[in-house]
Automatic annotation (TrEMBL):
The UniProt record lists the keyword Translocase: no
Record-level GO cellular component terms: nucleus
Family in the record: Belongs to the N(4)/N(6)-methyltransferase family.
Keywords: Coiled coil, Metal-binding, Methyltransferase, Transferase, Zinc, Zinc-finger
This protein's name: Matrin-type domain-containing protein
Amino acid sequence: MEMSNYLCEICDNSIYKQKSHYDTHLKSKKHLKNLENPSMKKNTIEKIAEKVSELIKEKEKEKEKIADTDTGTIINKAKDEIKNDTLYISNLDAYSFIKSLPDKSIQCIICDPPFGLGEDTFDKHYARNKEHVIEGYQTAPQDAKSYETWAKLWIHEIPRVLKSDGTLYIVCAWNHLCDIELAIRSAPSPNLTVLNHIIWKYNFGVYTQKKFVTSHYHILRCGIGKYTPTFYSRAFYNETDKTESGHNAQYTDMEDVWYIKKEFAQGETKNVNKLPDELVRKMIFYSSKPGDTVADFFLGNFTTAYVARKSGRKFVGCDINEESYKLHCKKVNDIPFPTNVEHEKESTKPDNAGKRLTEKDREIIIKRYDELHKEKTKRDSMLVLEKEFGRGHFSLVNLLKAAGR
């Protein structure tokens, strides 16, 4: 184990290996005398100034390192960039593209950045034939430090372009989860805040003999600082919808573990990791409405672009791979922009839900229940009460239970 050294810069940089010796030195006549010596004081101040100067230089070097990170800007840039009122797709890299966007212009951002694995590891990590991976596919830096620096480069630009009530989703594997989180938490003001850590549990993880089978990805849902992102809780279900097993469908769908199957297209040429349409649709619908702008800065298979377009959202995005860009760009643009997409399910929330019950209210409800229960079952009596008084089922159950009914 490495020992700590204790340095006294005032007394000719004297070094002590034990703290007790260092503490004794601080009380010594030599040290106290040096403290009173003006030349020593000046020397100490100069040393502190030098140290501060060194720290500033190190900080500047770190900034230069981030700025000099190879983003692959405009590699094989396609000339037929698509840009209109509802669609803007470019062949730029993520960092350069985000820099080109106006402030507070995006409502929902979905990013599935490269996982930092080389082509020689496709078979090992994905059980995938690299011959089916689209030509020109580029991975992110593979070592942790470079990946973290690369992640900071584009993530730190997001707070500027995301609306105050907007949402950022980042899909990532376990191997670089820490780097992504560090980049999020170190973003400059306005800060990004992690609101949910969603687990996407998929089918058929890659079998290994010496490790547990990886069968999930992480999805970090983030907002801007103190602001709460817009969240459409009735995107798919209202308050009374039920699952096949009779559970509350809205509650089940809003849990933070998502069981969504991967989509397989055997033999097709594609990017390494294709997100299922269902997964992307869920993120888009809960965090935006038709007419809002959705973005993806690592388009890959263009899933986000296709789903956003079909659901009536404006879309902006980019992908550095020219082959992928050429394969999908025109197809997305050819999809007619719909104007009559359903936004949210109609609320079935009782009219008086959440309103405080007075003592008089309680007396009336109990009396009415007793009248109904003489001729009806408890279940049928409850249904009548819910309709007549505009109260939720469980609030009435609790009220009657407290009254001994």
